[in-house]
Design a protein that fits this description.
It is a single chain. Helices cover 38% and strands 17% of the residues. A six-stranded mixed β-sheet has the order 1-2-3-8-5-4. The protein has three domains: 7-105, no CATH class; 113-266, no CATH class; 298-479, no CATH class. The chain has 16 helices and 18 strands. The protein is of the alpha+beta class.
Length: 496
């Protein structure tokens, strides 16, 4: 079995690897001489051993150049293959199978969050501590040592989208965060600062603040920038600051300002990245959402029910759009796992649009539900097991949350006031039943819609002032921004 491709060879390394393979080297030199995209446009598989296809990853423009130089070759959906005269063995030339694949058609490595964060940390270390300068994302590819390390992290290939993100992230880091040299960019692992701060937080505050064993419920930082020389001193100071979570946050806040410890939350970016500091200015934590709240008319709640031609069910999500503070927050509420045939609870995935577009962290649904109950006396249960899983259960009014519930209460309260594409109760009920029968439903999708509608129904019972306050609370919770009701979120910077 051939080894997995490892796309790391630069232009010069590709030529060097071709030495000893007859005409292959000359062919590649000729191709590379006037290729339109120099950096990042021509990357070879390091693992090729002279047997089988030698894979070369190229840009769209460089593929056109290859075709112009070598002809059409043997074409497939993903690649073009050329037989190039190679080594002469026994008086006969042994052809080399040279295969070019457009970058976007290379099967990307399925890197998890840990690998992606490790890549960010590596690039940050390189530009801050190694003084490597990148003027474009292509420069990262041209950095032979650095790019090879990234390929190793991604186990074979780094998609261009992540290289673009890394370039944008490091540019903002240098301009806005401005960490000093000789710091460590820590993200995970045994003995790491991440492990230390996670254990410190959960050991002391997990139960009291219902963090659910998750550090991110307190502070969503993905990497920690820590002064190496002060590591032991920093740890001791933080260990001594655990009387309350507010004391811990105060110490971390001062360390952040002094650039001794800086927690940074990372989101994948496009060509442009933005930076925001969260919970650094202590005065903002005293915000009372009863007074400083965002508008939220009932038309800000959206749910569609029409089944498009060719589909067998409607979309599972409902949405809330909140405009305030110079931004527009869009909460998409849907199943946490649409593929789970056993059903799935809801997740709230907010996006902020305004000065840059940011994918916010998931709003902690348990805290949203608790807030709705404790502060507004309205009950919503994020429990898929108490909602109908199919048409039969829906018609039998399963656990009081089936057809009768939605016909008599939920839909009459919503259809004439929310943003929707259908306003007739009977027609919506008919589409619910049809959607339950759809092949794509998987026992989750239609149920998720009903759960979202039930959540909307509870919101509809709020007064206008209460609704404004509640959705403002949701916006703060999603961003882990501390405010009067939830004042324990830790300080961090955010690159998005």
């Amino acid at each position: 079995m051939a080894a997995k491709e490892y796309y790391s060879l630069s232009r010069s390394q590709v030529v060097n690897k071709a030495r000893g393979y007859g005409q292959l080297r000359d062919t590649l030199v000729d191709l590379l001489r006037d290729a339109p995209m120099k950096k990042a446009g021509f990357i070879g598989d390091k693992n090729w051993n002279g047997k089988g296809n030698w894979m070369i990853k190229v840009s769209e423009d460089n593929m056109k150049h290859v075709i112009k130089k070598l002809g059409k070759g043997k074409e497939t959906k993903k690649a073009r293959t050329y037989q190039i005269p190679g080594k002469v063995v026994g008086g006969k030339s042994q052809p080399v199978s040279l295969r070019f694949r457009v970058t976007s058609k290379v099967e990307p490595t399925k890197a998890g969050t840990a690998e992606q964060e490790k890549g960010s940390a590596y690039i940050f270390d390189r530009v801050v501590n190694k003084s490597v300068k990148y003027n474009s994302w292509e420069d990262i590819v041209a950095d032979v040592e650095g790019y090879d390390a990234l390929v190793k992290i991604f186990n074979g290939d780094v998609p261009d989208s992540w290289l673009i993100s890394y370039y944008a992230q490091q540019k903002v880091l240098l301009q806005k965060v401005q960490p000093s040299t000789m710091v460590m960019f820590d993200h995970s692992g045994t003995g790491s600062f991440m492990e230390f701060i996670t254990d410190l937080c959960l050991k002391n505050f997990n139960t009291k603040y219902t963090l659910g064993g998750k550090k991110d419920s307190w502070n969503p930082a993905d990497i920690w920038i820590v002064k190496k020389a002060e590591m032991n001193k920093i740890k001791k100071e933080l260990e001594q600051a655990t009387t309350t979570i507010h004391e811990l946050n105060d110490v971390l806040r001062q360390m952040f300002i002094q650039k001794r410890v800086m927690g940074i939350s990372l989101k994948k970016t496009g060509k442009v990245a933005y930076y925001e500091e969260v919970n650094i200015d202590k005065s903002l934590i005293d915000i009372d959402t009863k007074e400083a709240n965002f508008p939220c008319p009932m038309t800000a709640l959206q749910s569609n029910f029409k089944i498009k031609s060719g589909d067998d069910m409607f979309t599972q999500d409902v949405k809330i759009t909140v405009e305030g503070g110079g931004k527009t927050y869009i909460f998409q509420i849907k199943a946490n796992s649409s593929d789970d045939v056993g059903g799935s609870n809801l997740k709230f995935e907010p996006t902020a649009k305004g000065s840059g577009t940011a994918r916010l962290g998931k709003a902690p649904v348990d805290k949203v539900v608790k807030l709705l109950k404790d502060d507004f006396d309205k009950t919503f249960e994020n429990n898929h097991k108490i909602y109908p899983k199919d048409k039969t259960q829906f018609e039998s009014n399963f656990k009081g949350r089936g057809e009768k519930y939605y016909t008599d209460k939920v839909l009459p309260a919503l259809l004439n006031v929310i943003d929707t594409d259908m306003r007739n109760v009977k027609e919506v009920i008919a589409n619910i039943k049809a959607s339950y029968g759809g092949k794509k439903d998987r026992g989750t999708n239609t149920k998720a819609k009903l759960m979202g509608l039930d959540f909307f129904y509870q919101i509809s019972k709020l007064t206008e002032d209460q609704r404004r306050e509640f959705v403002t609370d949701m916006c703060y919770l999603a961003q882990k921004k501390a405010f009067k009701k939830f004042d324990y979120f830790g300080p961090f910077g955010k690159i998005y």
